[in-house]
Structures are given as structure tokens and as C-alpha cells.
Design goal:
This protein has helices at 48-57, 109-118, 134-140, 200-217, 241-247, 276-294, and strands spanning 20-26, 38-44, 64-67, 73-75, 80-86, 94-96, 100-104, 121-122, 143-144, 147-148, 153-159, 165-168, 187-194, 196-197, 223-224, 254-255, 258-260, 268-270, 303-305, 313-315, 321-323. It is an alpha+beta fold.
């Protein structure tokens, strides 16, 4: 009779690094929704060299997920298997040049906009209206108030799964509306953005205009995850996601502790007791109602990762039912 050998714990299969590993790390607490399960292992690299070594030396069968600041992210209640990489503050640098703003992937969009404004540089004001960090903005070609990241990108730096550092010019991104074609397992670590000297009074006025518009239109003081669904079309005059949701009668809809915002119905809110399953189930209910009312199938803009708990029903990124 053969004895079955027990597999070693995941942490014993990982390379020795200068950064930090934490087992059973609470991911939900790091997201803006404040819901979700743990990471099997969370890894914060000490620096770029440490990250490259980790990627090169980690066995390829171990799942790796990258997490930014959690602004547009829903972590399912069962948590995330494998390793979740959190780049941390060491990747949050902002350096102002003559016409280039060099930023790390973890630099907050709003902080980049403010740093440029303080240096009297214009062209990056729109970033103040986008929740999250530069790495996520690159991944989804984030945009607001008439501009997108593709409009200001000079070059970006990303580490691939083999630990190789790649420099990417805009043409390599295959940018489209809220999408790029850079492989999902490449990790953005920084970017150079173009900006020009500008009039400080005009820059300040534009920043104030964006702050007012965002505060008036969006539930920014709640536990939310930003825009839930992509607009079906980016063409002028096309119906926005919120308009379709409103037409389907979903404004204010509630499931458990999750609610469709009364203020802006393309935002889901954790009213205080929501689970990730509540939020995802509410989102799927909205998608179904919109499809039945208008014939349009909304596509999630919020990224969802991990697995539901046993007995929960979630949805995979293709919109099909996912059962724990």
C-alpha cells in the first residue's frame, strides 16, 4: 500500500525574498468596498529587483494575482488562492521633469494630478477624477472628463512572468475603451506621462471643476468601487450604462447589504453589512434587468477575483454563473 505524501505548504515553495510574505492576509479590508476573503499568501516586494527575482523563481503552477489600491476591485468571500502581489509604497514615486512626469504604478491618480498642478504642469488634471493608482489606469486605459491614460502616455515599464523588465511604448498597448492588450500576467511598475507648462490659475480652476463635478455626481463618501459597468459604446450620443440601469428600474435596488446608488446608479454601495456575494449578486441582477429591458448586456468594469464561499453563487468574468 502506497502512502500519499502531503504537499508542502505554499509558503515553503516560494523563493526567499527581501520583501514580506503574509499568510492568510485579509484582502477585503484593503479594498474600497471593504468586503472579501483572504489571500492565501500576500507578497510585498522590497523593490523592483526583489519583484523580478520572485517572478523568475516562483514555480509556474502557483497562481499569481496583482492587487493595486483596491479601488475598482471586488474580492470574493472565499478569498484568493496562490500569491497576491501588493507593490506597496516603494512603487509610488512621483518625479516632475520639464515635460515628463515619471510615476510608479502605485502612485495614486489624484496625487499625480496634484503634484503636476503644484509644478504648474497641465494635461494631467483629468487624473484627479479617477479613483485608484497608475498601474490600474494603465491596465484599463482609465479615463474621465474627456481624457484617457492613452492620451498622455509616453512609455510604461512592466515585468513579465519570467521576471524580465519590459519598456512599452503606447503602440504596444493595443488601447481601446477601458482595455489594453498587454498580457494579464505582466505587472506594471511605472510610467512616464507627458505634461506641459501651464497657467496655474487655469490648472487650479480645472482641478476644482473636476472635484465639484465628481462630488455632485458620484457617491464618493461611501464604500463603493467606482463605476461598476463599462458604457456599452463610447460613441457620442450613445446611452451610458447609468442611463440603461435607470431605465431598467434598478436605481436604489437592494440585495442584502448592497445597494445600487440613488445618486449615480452605475455605482454599487456597501451600506455597511454587505458581503462580496451581495455586491456581485446585485450587479448580476442589474445586468439581467438591463438585458431584459433594453437588450443590452452590460460588461463589468469592476475587476472580480477569487472564489465564493461554499453555498454562494457568484459570476465569472464572462458573466456565467459560478458556484462555490
Amino acid at each position: 500500500m502506497m502512502l500519499m505524501m502531503k504537499a508542502p505548504p505554499l509558503i515553503e515553495r516560494l523563493p526567499r525574498v527581501n520583501g514580506e510574505y503574509i499568510e492568510n492576509f485579509n484582502l477585503g479590508r484593503q479594498t474600497w468596498f471593504k468586503v472579501g476573503g483572504p489571500a492565501e499568501i500576500a507578497y510585498t516586494p522590497a523593490d523592483l529587483t526583489d519583484l523580478r527575482y520572485f517572478l523568475a523563481e516562483t514555480p509556474r503552477d502557483i497562481p499569481i494575482t496583482v492587487m493595486g489600491v483596491g479601488s475598482n476591485l471586488l474580492v470574493r468571500d472565499g478569498g484568493v488562492a496562490g500569491v497576491v502581489i501588493r507593490l506597496g509604497a516603494r512603487f509610488g514615486n512621483i518625479e516632475i521633469g520639464d515635460d515628463i512626469v515619471k510615476v510608479g504604478a502605485m502612485a495614486l491618480d489624484i496625487q499625480v494630478a496634484r503634484a503636476a498642478a503644484q509644478a504648474n504642469m497641465t494635461g494631467l488634471e483629468f487624473l484627479s477624477g479617477i479613483p485608484g493608482a497608475i498601474g490600474g489606469a494603465l491596465r484599463m486605459n482609465a479615463g474621465a472628463y474627456g481624457s484617457e491614460i492613452k492620451d498622455v502616455l509616453v512609455r510604461a515599464r512592466a515585468v513579465d512572468r519570467a521576471g524580465v523588465l519590459n519598456v512599452l511604448l503606447p503602440d504596444a498597448f493595443g488601447f481601446s475603451y477601458r482595455h489594453c492588450t498587454v498580457p494579464e500576467d505582466w505587472i506594471f511598475v511605472g510610467a512616464d506621462l507627458i505634461a506641459q507648462p501651464g497657467d496655474p490659475t487655469e490648472i487650479a480652476a480645472r482641478m476644482a471643476e473636476i472635484a465639484t463635478a465628481r462630488g455632485d455626481a458620484q457617491p464618493i463618501r461611501t464604500r463603493t468601487g467606482g463605476s461598476t459597468f463599462k458604457n456599452p459604446s463610447n460613441e457620442p450620443g450613445a446611452a451610458k450604462a447609468w442611463e440603461l440601469i435607470d431605465k431598467a428600474g434598478c436605481r436604489g435596488l437592494v440585495i442584502g447589504g448592497a445597494q445600487v446608488s440613488e445618486q449615480h446608479c452605475n455605482f454599487l454601495i456597501n451600506t455597511g453589512s454587505a458581503t462580496a456575494d451581495d455586491l456581485e449578486s446585485l450587479g448580476e441582477t442589474v445586468r439581467r434587468c438591463v438585458r431584459e429591458e433594453t437588450g443590452v448586456t452590460l460588461e463589468w468594469e469592476i475587476k472580480r477575483i477569487g472564489q465564493p464561499l461554499d453555498g454562494q453563487t457568484g459570476s465569472n468574468p464572462d458573466g456565467e454563473a459560478l458556484h462555490g
